[in-house]
Amino acid sequence: MDDKRTDAPLRDDIRQLGGLLGSTIHDQAGESVYHVVEEVRRLSKEARAGDPAAAAELERTLAELPEELIVPVVRAFSQFLNLANIAEQHHRVRRSRSWRRDPEAAPLRGSLEESFERLSDEVDGEQLYEAARGLSIELVLTAHPTEVSRRTLLQKYNRIAGLLDRQDRLDPIPEEIEDVHQALRREITAAWYTDDIRRERPRPQDEARWGLAVIEQTLWDVVPRYLRRLDRQLYLRTGRHLPLDAAPIRFGSWMGGDRDGNPSVTAAVTREVCLLNRWMAVQLYEQEVSRLITELSLHCADDELKQAAGGAWEPYRQLLKEVRARLRRTRAWIDARLAGETPPAEDVYLRAEELAEPLRVCYHSLQHCGAGVVAEGRLLDLIRRLSVFGLTLMRVDIRQEAGRHSDALDAITRELGLGSYHDWDEAQRQDFLVRELASRRPLTPRDFEPDEDIREVLDTFDVMAELGPDSLGAYVISMAARPSDILAVELLQKEAGVRHFLRVVPLFETLDDLEGAGAAMERLLDIPWYRRRIGDHQEVMLGYSDSGKDAGHLTAAWALYQTQERLVALARRHGIRLTLFHGRGGSIGRGGGPTHAAILSQPPGSVEGRLRVTEQGEVIQAKFGLPGIAQRNLELYTTAVLEASLCPPAAPDAQWREIMDGLSGIAKSTYRGLVRETPEFIEYFRHATPEHEIGLLSIGSRPARRRPTSGVESLRAIPWIFSWTQTRLLLPAWLGVGEALAAHLDRDGETLRRMYRQWPFFRAFLDMVEMVLAKGDPQVAAWYDARLVPEELRPLGERLRGQFRDTLDAVLAVTGHATPLEDFPVVQRSVQVRNPYVDPLNLVQVELLRRVRHGREETLLRPLMVCINGIAAGMRNTG
Questions:
Q1: Using CA of residue 686, residue 688, residue 693, residue 694, what is the dihedral sign?
Q2: Which of 554, 574, 831, 875 has the highest CB neighbour number within 10 Å of its CB?
């Protein structure tokens, strides 16, 4: 298809939404504001086109903008960028539908049709069926301080997307066209009058409700449609249907369970969030059962159903009414628990199987009576939802830092007069932990009264015992480095009386921890008690964020690849199944990027039908906010995991490994030489970016720093990357890459180019760096330096901008592209469309930062926050 022709509807949508926004600004903010916005827009476009006079006039105009005009001008550009995002998301769905309608078009890359057709040529039907039936993919939704848009605005934006969809699908008469136009005008006007920023920092419970909203508003309906498509393709290629209880994709959550460095997440919060999840699940199931009661008025039934329904004339309705009544009792029981009461769990649904059983009875009865076509409708969708979502929609992971468990055990051993757990070496700790795990007696004294911090750790394990396995997923240990870190959590579960132990998942994050992960897991698996405990399955989490912040993007990416290889080899030696849990963020520097390419670039043997991955911050809305895009992303996960399992890439040869070792060493030296060893770097970072001001945004329940120290090492990876994204330098994603590539290009550039063409890992890595460099703009970063950075620190900024340009040259030399994103024209045009709207926001932000830092904070903080939101919308994957 011709890209320009097929993108014409996108340009029409952006023109329409931009025009409606312009008329809204004119009508609601006044003609003078409208004219300033239009003049700034004109100057910005001309400046981007290369007019130096327009660039100078744009800078002067925005620097002299009166305070009363700052907020409406910033909001105008911010809202346009959000509307452009909506139009682009809708256009992705439209192009996908158009592609499927065209009988001459090849199947869309990564779709179920394209992948099943291709895989059918590679493997036999039985292999394909078994691989699809055994898929275990879990998407873990997390809340992070990069999702800057308020939920109330996101809901308006989703309604705008729905109106664009309605506009496309109508065979309209003029009145219907006008109805859609007026509805769009109303939504855009309502958005204009809605505050862009939160007045209060959200609580973990609020974040959990946002995650539930994604399921309720999108995934609840998308999942059964996705499973129908998967079932159809599987039957077409293998002659066999998906089992009734198939759940190739499930959903987890860290919202309300991630307490690593977040004092707002307490045991009480985790209990409340798990109950909220259960309450929403019951509400959704009750609605579906009520619809089935209306639909299933049939009286034909098999003996099992007749008996279950007590001989009623309309047995399906009778049985389902009993199910609905029990669901209502369950909801009332949850309401009482949320109110702080402890009612007995009498005749309520506690396990998904209890609800699934009567639904299966109805399904099999319909099949037996010849009404299978009815069974395959709403009833089958509900059974499949139950397999995917369970009775809690998302199981909540608990995450805690390893040191907190050591602190708790230290307090206990001191109380018992056994000495200090902290003072013991690893061998002593392991001996103690294994001995106590094997013991039948409790360890903790009944009258033990620890301090508040230790009490909170122990209370969390008590809540785990109370909630049970249906509500909870894994227990993830941050900063895990040794076997005792894992055994400590196992012992604390035993002490709390957890009947069904949560699987304990070590998270290896820093470069040193990644490099030592294989050896640490080897020592752990050599412990007989632990080997018996896990059976034949071990899960390990890999941290992309802190490893990148620790050693730079290139070094972290290669370390993560090698760590996976070592863990795969370890699992095979020990005869266990391995699930790798990828802690990826939205930005490239935190492991973000296109799903399909990322999974297919993993080492051979690292997937094998099993994958867990975090979906963080604004990525949740981008991937699952609209039904069409959500379905596409579920398919991409499915097809990528299938392909990586059935047709894994070849392992890189020895020469390529040697080259990667060399590139990694140069990149790490360059990165750490600047970030850790350049004395003026921290001061430059604080002046040149809005790092401090981002911490004032009410965009997440978790603090920006783990510890109250001033260095980069204590700063969380998200604000570290977010700060550089705001200035468009995007340093964490590319620093060190250019120097490493340039050094090898001088020696053997052709081998690098062959690696790019033939090795999925290297290609995916460089494509992502190229995308970052295309979004970046060193000239914009120079604006920040000129107004905010002391003169003695400016040479450092000039050096970094030079490194940015050199890195782009080196990347293009390897990829063979004349311009960035040459192979991705849609993304290239998206960046080009956004630049004239993001540039004014950057210029205004520079001026606002200058004024705020000179003491005029009270009146300017709000426009600065709006500005940060707008730039984040323009840059998309911010953290």
A1: negative
A2: 554
Q: What is the number of other CB atoms lying within 10 angstroms of the CB of residue 410?
A: 18
| Number of residues that make up the chain | 879
- Helix pair angle (151-169, 67-101), 10° resolution: 40
Residue 522 to residue 524: CA distance in whole angstroms: 5
* Assigned token pair, 245: 């209880």
Pair type for strands 472-478 and 537-543: unpaired
DSSP string, 219-236: IHHHHHHHHHHHHHHHHH
Find residue 612's DSSP bridge partners: 138, 581
Cα separation of 72 and 76, whole Å? 6
Residue with tokens 């996705």: 226
pLDDT tens column, 433-455: 999 999 999 999 888 999 999 99
Return residue ranges of the chain for CATH 1.20.1440.90.
Answer: 269-389
Tell me if 768 sits within 8 A of 588, measured CB to CB: yes
What's the gap between Cα 73 and its chain centre? 31
- Beta bridge pairs of residue 705: 715
Fold of 269-389: de novo design (two linked rop proteins) (1.20.1440)
Mean pLDDT for all residues in the chain = 91
Query: What one-character DSSP code corresponds to residue 625?
Result: S
In a 13 Å sphere around the CA of 440, the CA atoms on its Cβ side amount to 0
Q: Which residues of 827-851 are buried (b: 16+ CB within 10 A; e: fewer)?
A: bbbbbebbbbbbbbbbbbbbbbbeb
pTM of the full structure:
0.92
Please work out, in degrees rounded to the nearest 5, the angle formed at the alpha carbon of residue 620 by the alpha carbons of 25 and 258: 120
Amino acid, res. 870: G
Token readout for 27 is: 């009508």
Positions marked active-site: 144, 549
Handedness of CA 439, 445, 451, 455 (dihedral sign): positive
User: How confident is the model over 711-743, as pLDDT tens digits?
Assistant: 565 555 567 888 999 999 999 999 999 999 999
Amino acid at 472: L
Centroid of chain to Cα 472: 19
DSSP state of 134: T
Report the alpha-carbon distance of residue 860 to residue 411 in Å, rounded: 48
Q: Can you list the positions of beta strands (E) in 133-193?
A: 136-142
Q: What are phi and psi of 103, to 5 degrees?
A: -65, -20
H helical segments located in 296-401: 303-308, 315-338, 352-368, 372-374, 380-389
Averaged pLDDT, 176-197: 88
Query: What's the pLDDT score for residue 8?
Result: 85
Q: Residue 583's beta-bridge partner residues?
A: 543
Confidence of residue 150 (pLDDT cuts 50, 70, 90): low
pLDDT tens, position by position, 462-474: 999 999 789 999 9
